[in-house]
Design a protein that fits this description.
Blueprint lengths: L1 E2 L2 E2 L5 H9 L2 H12 L1 H16 L1 H18 L10 H22 L2 H19 L8 H8 L2 H21 L1
Antiparallel strand pairs: 1-2
């Protein structure tokens, strides 16, 4: 391809992929995915099977609830709109698939990994909660606390933007 009588070389898809693999964060995310590939494959297959058989599962559930209703008229399920419930489950399937697509993105996996590690670490070390406004201000002087709160504020801002 030429542009103003100069040859312009566009990188091949393979070269673009190699460039992305050279990024440390991408390599770390892929390493994390590979460490959990067996679990990820199991979850993906299970959810795919569940979602692909959603109609059969929903109909079976509706039949089972119908049988329960017929067997015991005083059953608390007597007032449940089973067809509406089944329709809600069917309608939720595309949303679940969309969430699954996003949850496997490398950046999301990295953030969730950091979050679970932080929760486990916080649970293992009992720390007294700050009491009063001055104690909160002192806690903000800690760079790790400030970074965590900054991240949470960014998540809140993004979430608010998504709600609009």
């Amino acid at each position: 391809m030429t542009l103003n009588d100069q040859i312009v070389v566009t990188p091949s898809p393979a070269a673009a992929l190699r460039s992305r693999l050279d990024e440390p964060k991408v390599a770390a995310a892929l390493d994390n995915l590979l460490d959990h590939a067996d679990l990820l494959a199991l979850v993906t297959v299970a959810l795919d099977g569940f979602l692909s058989r959603g109609d059969v599962i929903a109909n079976t559930l509706a039949e089972a609830v119908g049988e329960l209703r017929g067997a015991n008229p005083a059953n608390p399920l007597a007032g449940v709109d089973v067809k509406g419930l089944v329709a809600s489950v069917k309608d939720a399937a595309p949303t679940v698939q969309k969430l699954l697509g996003q949850i496997t993105e490398p950046r999301v996996v990295e953030v969730v990994t950091h979050l679970t590690t932080a929760v486990a670490e916080a649970e293992s070390v009992p720390a007294p909660a700050p009491t009063g406004a001055l104690a909160l201000l002192r806690a903000l002087k800690d760079p790790e606390t400030a970074a965590g709160l900054g991240f949470l504020l960014q998540v809140a801002k993004s979430f608010g933007r998504q709600l609009r």
